[in-house]
Design goal:
Length: 778
């Protein structure tokens, strides 16, 4: 029987009760029109897009930055759950959910990112929520339950956004409270018992006060898309139950505006099924003998399986578990003081926390049985064996950040100056279980390596940017320059099997800069060129048994572009070309073995990345729109230093290295038709997206199954038909039916090669899904 979150349903019922309360007033359509991304117009041209790519509100077509903006309204109509769907609509972006974490993701833009899931690993693409930096990739997949817009900024953003935006930045902006009372609710149901219910209440201005509030609650769950015969349907691989709450508050105090937001995500579920797709002959021989000892058959296949078994994790008390849980929550307080028409002061205060208890079942099998040797006496016995499983419990992170900004104008000059402070503490305990198969495949040794870390980090920065738009040229020309000085300090303690504990400290500093020029050739035609730099901070390797430090990596990007609109704002075309020189690239030389999932991080790489992006939107006929994008990345390793683990000789293997998490081509094409009729609107949207193949490891020398887990070209088709703005008893209703992965692609979504452990596996893309949804606005 399906269980429903009482907290989320309770808030939904409360919202409905408020709707029919005698004091309820009719909601306005919107006090501040949503101009953050494309809207289909039934009568005119494209609407204006407003972004904050330069930390202040500007029209997209005036910003000399390659940026994609998606409105919250569009995301809602598409029923987009989290950031993993964004690459379908933004060129040269990849967001891949981690196979060992319910809320973690690997994010790459233009070939730059980070694939290390550790709680102390720095990202290569900065993730921001309401101006607050989310430091850890393990907490980046939160439900986008109440988003006004998402902005994807491509290229280094080191001047205004700081460290760890070397590849770019993704900004999530929450919806603000409305001026008038309003209420809305939405629910949906789809394949695999995938359903959600969400409601939002806006108080409007409370009495005669300048304060207005909003609260959104959502419950979402599904049963997973692969059937495990050893678990209930509700605990099948990929199943999830998530409760999320978003609270917003805003106060207009004259010259001061205060905006507060709180977000909370509580995810419980089972990580996606990790299927073994390739292994050595010794591994196949050893685990294939499982039925001889009363165990299940060994599952290994390069094709996606639908009925499987899972090992789970057996704790010290002998209890076997499959479920994981993650909690992510945070606060953001933005204060804006209009000191004068020419000066605005801002403060952004953030506090966030993260907790996870995660079972990392990467065995791809059930409770296999095999011959096990005692590690001390070498006496044989028959026991449970597993390629690899583990439990991260707990992993904790808390962070505090404070940013001050001054924005102003002096004559033809505009400027932004600021200071930034960041502090965090992290701890992680990783209990691993694996069977080390001996040569010949006749026996193995059960091992229990434990990795534990404690760390803290502190970062300080000063930054500024000045733009000049000379009146003598009617402000058609803009010249901009910016600088940012950052200093980082980190401390990391290695515990667990590292006895006595080892503690290391590192510090680094960086000066990032930006220079750009743009010129308005015509009222709707702007060209620009920019040079920007960024860096990802160095640190200490959390996966090693010694203090392995590594330096920051740096990038310098040259970019030129065109932003244009034609035919009375019925066609928008934006182009950008870039060359990025990427130096001191931090590379992990994976070295899984008897110590578990370990590796060495070195500054081994020099890479040149070059390519282009093109985005367009058009409304050729009333109610009909087209939009699309294409992105291209060419990766050229200039240097790739590799230390042979056998000979200890360092050599340059740049010619053999492969781009990781970076498709050469990304493509999107969307079409939408909206037809107004008496009493409502009918809308049909179809989206086609393509990304070419991706590798998950750079070197075959350390990952012999790299080709086996390569993800092939993916072609995705999604469609939705809806009836909107249906007036029923004074309320507005919306009904929709949709389908996703209509081509039923079976590609690998994420792969891991365990190297010397002798096997590799992957999680596969979800099969075709479909469902219905309904929305009501009071």
């Amino acid at each position: 029987m399906t269980r429903i979150s009482t907290g989320a349903v309770g808030l939904s019922l409360l919202a409905i009760q408020l709707t029919f309360a005698p004091t309820a007033r009719a909601a306005t359509t919107n006090d501040t029109p949503d101009t953050s991304a494309e809207q289909v117009s039934t009568s005119g041209g494209l609407e204006t897009i407003v972004v904050t790519a330069r930390r202040s509100s500007e029209k997209l077509q005036n910003v000399p930055v390659a940026v994609t903006a998606l409105s919250g309204e569009f995301l809602d109509r598409q029923n987009i759950v989290d950031a993993t769907a964004l690459p379908r609509f933004a060129p040269n972006l990849l967001v891949a959910a981690l196979p060992s974490n319910l809320s973690g993701a690997t994010v790459y833009i233009r070939g730059i990112g980070n694939n290390e899931p550790s709680s102390v690993a720095e990202q290569g693409v900065g993730i921001y929520l309401d101006g607050v930096y989310i430091a850890r990739s393990a907490g980046t997949l939160f439900d986008v339950a109440d988003i006004e817009r998402v902005e994807v900024l491509r290229g280094p953003q080191g001047t205004l956004f700081g460290r760890n935006t070397i590849g770019g930045a993704v900004q999530f902006v929450s919806r603000k409270p409305r001026d008038e009372f309003a209420m809305e609710a939405k629910a949906g149901y789809g394949r695999y018992n995938d359903w959600f219910v969400r409601s939002r209440v806006d108080t409007g201005f409370i009495g005669s006060s300048p304060i207005k509030l909003s609260i959104t609650a959502q419950h979402r769950q599904n049963d997973g898309y692969i059937n495990s015969t050893v678990t209930p349907d509700s605990q099948d691989p990929g199943s999830v139950k998530n409760d999320s709450i978003v609270i917003g508050a805003e106060a207009d105090l004259g010259d001061v505006t205060a905006t507060y937001s709180f977000d909370y995500n509580n995810r419980r579920g089972t990580t996606p099924f990790f299927q073994i797709v390739a292994a050595t002959q010794d591994i196949i021989k050893y685990y294939s003998a499982s039925p001889d000892y009363g165990g299940p058959a060994f599952l290994i296949s390069p094709e996606r399986q639908q009925t499987v078994q899972e090992t789970g994790f057996v704790d010290s008390s002998g209890r076997r578990g499959y479920g994981s849980k993650v909690k992510v929550w945070g606060h953001a307080l933005n204060l804006t003081y209009e000191a004068s028409p020419a000066l605005t002061l801002k403060s952004i205060t953030g506090y966030r926390r993260f907790f996870q208890d995660t079972i990392t079942d990467l065995s791809g099998n059930g409770d296999l049985q095999g011959v096990v040797l005692d590690p001390i006496t070498f006496d044989p016995s028959i026991a449970s064996v597993t390629p690899y499983t583990g439990r991260i419990n707990p992993a904790k992170q808390r962070q505090f950040s404070q940013e001050f900004q001054a924005l102003g104008t002096v004559g033809d000059f505009s400027y932004l100056a600021g200071a930034y402070y960041f502090h965090e503490r992290v701890s992680e305990y990783y209990d691993q279980r694996l069977t080390f198969v001996l040569e010949g495949g006749d026996a193995g040794i059960n091992l229990n390596p434990i990795q534990a870390i404690r760390g803290k980090a502190e970062s300080r920065a000063l930054f500024g940017q000045v733009s000049w738009k000379p009146s003598a040229l009617d402000q058609k020309l803009e010249l901009t320059g910016g600088l940012r000085y950052t200093r980082d300090k980190k401390t990391l303690t290695l515990a667990g099997d590292v006895q006595p504990n080892l503690t290391g400290k590192v510090s680094s500093e960086n000066l990032s800069w930006l220079a750009s020029a743009s010129y308005e050739l015509a009222p709707d035609l702007m060209v620009y060129a920019r040079v920007s730099t960024g860096y990802r901070s160095g640190g200490i390797n959390p996966r090693a048994t010694v203090i392995n430090t590594f330096k920051p990596e740096k990038a310098m990007a040259y970019e030129a572009g065109i932003k244009s609109e034609f035919f009375d704002h019925r066609l928008r075309l934006n182009l950008a070309g870039y060359i990025t020189n990427y130096t001191d690239r931090q590379l992990t030389q994976f070295a899984a073995g008897s110590a578990g999932a370990t590796g060495l991080i070195v500054n081994a790489g020099k890479v040149r990345l070059q390519g282009f992006e093109a985005e367009f939107a058009a409304t050729p006929l009333p109610g009909f729109s087209l939009d699309g994008s294409v992105g291209y990345v060419h990766t050229e390793y200039r240097q790739f230093l590799f230390r042979d683990p056998v000979t200890d000789i360092v050599s340059d293997v740049a010619d053999a290295a492969k781009p990781i998490y970076t498709p050469k081509w990304t493509l999107h094409l969307g079409g939408e038709y909206a037809y107004e009729f008496t009493g409502g609107l009918a809308r049909l949207r179809i989206d086609y997206s393509l990304r070419t193949s991706i590798y998950f490891n750079a070197l075959d020398a350390t990952t012999p199954f790299n080709e086996n887990i390569k993800s092939g070209t993916d072609r995705n088709v999604k469609a939705r038909l809806s009836l909107e703005d249906i007036d029923i008893g004074g309320t507005k209703m919306e009904f929709g039916v949709w389908g996703d992965n209509l081509t039923n692609q079976k590609n690998i979504a994420y792969g891991i090669d365990f190297g010397s452990l002798g096997f590799a596996g992957a999680i596969f893309k979800k099969p075709i899904t479909y469902g219905v949804d309904m929305k009501i606005v009071f």
